[in-house]
UniProtKB/TrEMBL annotation:
<keyword id="KW-0732">Signal</keyword>
<feature type="signal peptide">
    <location>
        <begin position="1"/>
        <end position="21"/>
    </location>
</feature>
<protein>
    <submittedName>
        <fullName>Outer membrane protein</fullName>
    </submittedName>
</protein>
<dbReference type="InterPro" id="IPR051692">
    <property type="entry name" value="OMP-like"/>
</dbReference>
<dbReference type="InterPro" id="IPR011250">
    <property type="entry name" value="OMP/PagP_B-barrel"/>
</dbReference>
<comment type="similarity">
    <text>Belongs to the Omp25/RopB family.</text>
</comment>
Length: 287
């Protein structure tokens, strides 16, 4: 009898313990911590280096005479009334700096502003012989020189980013230093008229380009010069862009050399062309 009571008591205690254990919270592994993958954004300041190819096509130089005699010389073809020049050359080096803002990280609209300056150093000389004078006298030589020492652009830009790939259009201010030189000689080769302009000019520019941000694990980042100079950056970007610039027209007064010529001419130079830039930028901040 006593054994039955003890067995019943032990069974009751075992059932009660099991029931209590069932009421306790179950031990489960903690949920995994979600770490979002960083999304690239073009927002931030940037600066870099570039090289450029500059070319012009049929820049116009028109000349008019300011007296009856000089006007007659232009009309008769002894002095050229219209000359066109073409220039091209590779800029030695240039630099750029600016800021971008992207409205939505990843893919989305990007707006920004950029200032670039390139040492173009392109020059064109034109030497022209005028129509022969009556009586077999040799024609009058005329010489024009036109050059663009350097070119800068301060432009806004609007584009669309496909993650690390950016396509954009740009437009704004163009500025640079231009040089115009005119020398008219008599048939004997003596300088008869001369005029010159060498100064700063302002105009406008527009164009577009593409830019690609290299992934941080790209082997191309090993070629980033700035990393060896202690420059901290979030990304290296490579770019290519086309810009059309127009610095307007400039009148050059071509005066007679005392004792050699009389009267004067007016030559009007047009400075307009294209520049193709390629380079890289360091992008600071933005993640």
């Amino acid at each position: 009898m006593i054994k039955k009571v003890l067995l019943a008591t032990a069974a009751s205690a075992l059932v009660a313990t099991a029931a209590s254990a069932a009421d306790l919270p179950r031990r489960a592994a903690p949920p995994p911590v979600f770490t979002p993958v960083p999304v690239f954004t073009w927002t931030g300041f940037y600066a870099g280096l570039e090289s450029a190819y500059t070319f012009t096509d049929n820049q116009r130089i028109t000349t008019t005479g300011l007296t009856a005699v000089t006007a007659g010389n232009v009309q008769a073809g002894r002095r050229p009334g219209l000359v066109t020049t073409s220039q091209d050359g590779i800029a030695n080096i240039g630099g750029t700096a600016g800021y971008n803002y992207q409205f939505t990280p990843g893919s989305g609209i990007v707006v920004g502003v950029a200032n670039s300056i390139d040492w173009t150093d392109i020059t064109k000389n034109r030497f022209i012989l005028g129509a022969p004078l009556a009586g077999g006298v040799l024609p009058n030589p005329s010489q024009y020189r036109q050059s663009l020492d350097w070119l800068g652009t301060l432009t806004g830009r609007v584009g669309y980013a496909f993650d690390r790939f950016l396509v954009y259009g740009t437009g704004g201010l163009a500025y640079g230093n231009v040089f115009h030189d005119v020398n008219f000689y008599n048939p004997a080769g003596t300088l008869q008229f001369a005029g010159r302009y060498d100064d700063f000019k302002i105009g406008y520019a527009y164009g577009g380009g593409i830019e690609f941000a290299l992934p941080t694990d790209s082997f191309l980042n090993t070629f980033a010069v700035g990393r060896y100079l202690g420059i901290k950056y979030d990304a290296i970007t490579i770019k290519a862009e086309y810009i059309h610039y127009d610095l307007g027209s400039q009148n050059v007064l071509v005066n007679a050399i005392p004792g050699v010529g009389t009267g004067a001419y007016l030559s009007r130079f047009k400075t307009e062309g294209n520049i193709v830039r390629a380079g890289f930028n360091y992008k600071f901040g933005g993640f």
